């Protein structure tokens, strides 16, 4: 991997959107809750929903950055990205939990 390729990958994962910190917390809470409903979860509570949503947004943003410009999206695109990443996160967590039992 060249230095330019490594820099490009890091730049994709560190792009920012027009949504502020409070916006990320609100979107994270919504995305975590919606992802829990999509994955038929029992509910995680507000704080864990926020964490799932924010981590999911990072995952979704990183994955989508290979296909679209994620930094130009607003609230709705950020919410979609966070939901997509949160569903992927919960799916992976479910696989790990099933393999441990």
Question: What would your notes on this structure say?
Answer:
- The protein is mainly α and 101 residues long.
- It has one domain (18-99).
- It contains four helices and no strands.
- It has helices at residues 3-13, 21-38, 46-64, 75-100.
- α2 (21-38) packs across α4 and α3 packs across α4 (75-100).
- The radius of gyration is 14 Å and the shape is globular.
- The termini are far apart.
- The mean pLDDT is 80.
What's the SSE blueprint?
Layout: H1 3-13, H2 21-38, H3 46-64, H4 75-100
Helix pairs in contact: 2-3, 2-4, 3-4
Protein name: GlsB/YeaQ/YmgE family stress response membrane protein
Membrane topology: Multi-pass membrane protein
Organism: Gordonia oryzae
Question: What brief labels describe this structure?
Answer:
about 100 residues, mainly alpha, 4 helices, transmembrane helix, transmembrane, cell membrane, GlsB/YeaQ/YmgE family stress response membrane protein
Short description:
This protein is mainly α and 101 residues long.
